[in-house]
Design a protein that fits this description.
Layout lengths: L2 E5 L4 E6 L4 H18 L4 H17 L1 H12 L3 H25 L7 H4 L8 E6 L2 E5 L7 H13 L2 E5 L5 H13 L7 E3 L7 H6 L3 E7 L2 H13 L4 E4 L4 E5 L7 H13 L9 E7 H17 L18 H16 L3 E4 L16 E4 L6 H4 L6 E7 L2 H9 L8 E3 L3 H10 L6 E2 L18 E2 L4 H6 L2 E6 L3
Parallel strand pairs: 4-5, 4-7, 5-6, 7-8, 9-10, 9-14, 10-13, 12-13, 14-15
Antiparallel strand pairs: 1-2, 3-17, 8-16, 11-12
The chain binds NADPH dihydro-nicotinamide-adenine-dinucleotide phosphate.
Length: about 475
Amino acid sequence: MPIASVDPATGRTLETFEPMDAAAVEERVAKAARAFREHRETDFATRAALMRAAADLLDGERDTIARTMTAEMGKTFASARAEAAKCAKAMRWYADHAEELLADEHPDPADVADSGAERAVVRYRPLGVVLAVMPWNFPLWQVVRFAAPALMAGNTGLLKHASNVPRTALYLGDLFHRAGFADGCFQTLLVGSGAVEDVLRDPRVAAATLTGSEGAGRAVAAAAGDAIKPTVLELGGSDPFVVMSSAAAELDDAVSTAVTARVQNNGQSCIAAKRFIVHEDVYDAFAERFVRAMERLTVGDPMDDSTDVGPVATEQGRADLEELVEDALSRGAAALCGGGRPAALPDGWFYEPTVLAGVTDAMRIHREEAFGPVATLYRVPDLDAAVALANDTPFGLSSNVWTRDADEQRRFARDLEAGGVFFNGMTASHPALPFGGVKRSGYGRELSAQGIRAFCNVTTVWFG
Ligand code: NDP
């Protein structure tokens, strides 16, 4: 894939970039390794001041970087602004909390009495240079939720961003540098995916994190496994959104949350709700209101305040989505709304908000991730069927359930195979809470204490 900014709302190429050659990559890897030796020795107060400076810069430049994101990958300007604000918040959260999250731990004296380990401590030391392979869908947030904890822990970072968001990638490398982090602490490698493996295998690189597709995750994890380096993988999701009959009184809330959960970021979020599993007692009412609300969404120019859904980020992404929908329709599914390109928007990679019913396990969309504004709707007779269907997917990122019934909540919280179970609301990430999945959604956790410790050498220091 060429490294280029292409406006998905028009299909127009805005700028193309020459990938860095091997010598430029080598220079950056060497610089990252050198920077690590100094950065690891800085104290938390110093790192926190730099991280807050980066957050302040980002706040001040919110509209500019939001316009860049919208132009490169088509998210609405309003959501791009919100993403930038969320990044600044996460930076400040790690600036405030890193020291306590990485404080030395002491074993319980009762556990180690007379063992010789009375004065032992568990210490979280940084690992070194961490390679981050990142996707375009939240081009700032995906990077910041790695970079803020990694830098606060004393690591240095190399960013290989998706090839369709080079302007945002360059902005990020520049941001941390302008905030005052030493040269080499956080750098962008403007390279295609073919250059990743060599960087990963470089002995100066200690670990990797990847957010993206299963294929990319598999390739990076295989090379990292071969080189015996730790990885965190945050891959796709096909999150269930279950509505039980006990939610009958708040069906309107459930419907409006369902719509947002499906079409946020033009439908291209790993934690978007994608499969809507509705108890038969409320199915007809939910389906009717959900379809009506999806039909009412405004699809169009992502810079326009009145737009709800912008284009799909890439031409290939829309083609993949079209294939999934056509496969389902050809095998007997019904489009309750949408199902094609909006006629009024012939340029750019737009797709109509779509609801499919009558989906069976013979259809690809039943088990694959629909990365765009396409929902599948299922009717279930009871809780057991809802749990079974929710788990009938290779993915296990997060899940949403609408029920106020305490017994039902206990069952879903116990049985859903996912890294998150959100009741009566939609999945969201928060710096203080771990984020990640099970099954083919990946492994490891980002954010919270888990996220900052993921790239630490958890060291037992024993004093005899
Ligand atoms: P990719 O997984 O291909 O891209 C994500 C990142 O991985 C990019 O930086 C990409 O680089 C890199 N990459 C891709 N292949 C390899 C490889 N073999 N070795 C090393 N790095 C690699 O996502 P796509 O943009 O192609 O999207 C395809 C599908 O992935 C989507 O439809 C969706 O299902 C899923 N996806 C999930 C995301 C999530 O948030 N979980 C985010 C994005 C996509 P480059 O851009 O240069 O190819």
